[in-house]
Amino acid sequence: MRIRSRLVAGGASVLLLTTLLGAVGATSAEARCNGAGNGITSTMSYNGVERAREIPNSGTCNSDGEYHATLKDSYSDGNTVRFRWDGNGDGNYTTEASTGTSVGFVATDNTSAAYEQLCMVTETGTPYCGFGSNSARGWGNGGRGLNTGF
Predict the structure, then answer these.
(1) Strands 19-21 and 12-16, bridge-based pairing
(2) DSSP per-residue string spanning 49-108
(3) HEC letters along 16-65
(4) What distance in Å separates the CA atoms of residue 91 and residue 26, rounded to the nearest whole number?
(5) Is the N or the C terminus of the chain less surrounded, counting Cβ atoms within 10 Å?
(6) Could you count the other beta carbons within 10 Å of the beta carbon of residue 92?
(7) Is the pTM of the predicted complex or chain greater than 0.85?
(8) Alpha carbon distance 48, 6 (integer Å)
């Protein structure tokens, strides 16, 4: 499983490094692909404000094991947002978008099924993670979505 990411800002693309993180533990799940070619946008809200948005690229839900999407920092407040991914339970990978920017990325997994979670990291380094409105303080806390058929 791996993630490649590109920073998309002002038409420039910059390769970003990915980071290996600790385990994701959460309870809620839902499919992020609704049939072939039908990706579902995911969000994470904290304190009633959408902080992160993950938008699947057109056609990514085709069961080829590659998930193509864009991570967007939805709220320009100085914080960064992260996309966390765990397919086979062998580690969690992340891509990050700085305040107000978007990052295109490709996540791969040979099972075409993986949990995803969105996080906001404050300027002081405190993470708030989750899925939809189910968010909580700490890495791996809050909700997560099950992404299948990518």
Answers:
(1) unpaired
(2) EEEEEEEEPTT--SSSSEEEEEEEE-S-SS-EEEEEEESSSS-EEEEEE-TT-EEEEEEE
(3) ECCEEECCCCCCCCCCCECCCCCECCEEEEECCEEEEEEEECCCCCCCCC
(4) 15
(5) N
(6) 23
(7) no
(8) 29
